[in-house]
Amino acid sequence: MDASEKAARLLTAARLEGRKIGALPADCRPADEAAAYSAQAAAHDLLTAAGKGARIGWKIGCTTPVMQRFLDIHNPCAGGMFERSRYRGHADLRHADFIKGAVECEIEGMRVRTLCNEDLLLVLCVHAAKHCWSQLGMVRDIAALARFDLDWRWVTSEARRLGIARIISVSLELARLLLKLELPQEVASYPTALDAIKPSIWPRVMTAIGSVLLFAALLTLMFLGCQLALSAIAV
After folding, report:
1. Which end of the chain is less crowded, N or C, counting CB atoms within 10 A of the terminal residue's CB?
2. Cα–Cα distance, 17 to 120 (Å, whole number)
3. With contact defined as beta carbons under 8 Å apart, do 117 and 141 qualify?
């Protein structure tokens, strides 16, 4: 078995098993771009044989200077696309089937990768918890995102894995109580510790809401004062 074939087998096994892979062993690590594409070609044959279907095209990546510096690849590179991964029209894909979920968007002609909605929800909840849910806007953002069609089974499972299940639970419950968020079936029975921590959470939430209302009242009084002053000057 030559180096390209060994590398191809390791890469294909990781791909089929849905797991990350670290650096390849030194005895099969490609020494240059040509050797890397040779290993890739062998991996494509193995993936086709494993049921991924024929290779139907190429996805060009690493096209911007930013990504090239990040990956330490100094030119665009190509990855194969397979028949079994082609979808025509609408398609429902499970978040759990992907190793690192991300969404690619374009900003002023530059393609950037951002968090997928499920990962973004976790981040928003943790960020809100960091600030003790003291800003209603943070809860609003969580409620708005939670109204999307999310993979809730993955969200709850990942929250437990990361040890932030209670944070997610409190965030969603606050969104439900304050902003009338209708929790989906998958999390309607999600165990929550909110009752046990209401004494510590609600004073902070109400203080935050009270602060917002007080600030709005002060702005209104300042505006009315300015109007009265201007009226007096005009007279």
Report:
1. C
2. 25
3. no
Question: Does 197 score more than 50 pLDDT?
Answer: no
Confidence tier at 80 by pLDDT (50, 70, 90):
very high
Q: Can you give the pLDDT at residue 230?
A: 67
For residue 9, give Cα distances in angstroms to 44, 50, 182. 10, 12, 47
pTM of the shown model: 0.50
* Residue 91 burial (CB count, 10 A): 7
Q: Quote the longest CA-to-CA distance of the chain.
A: 97
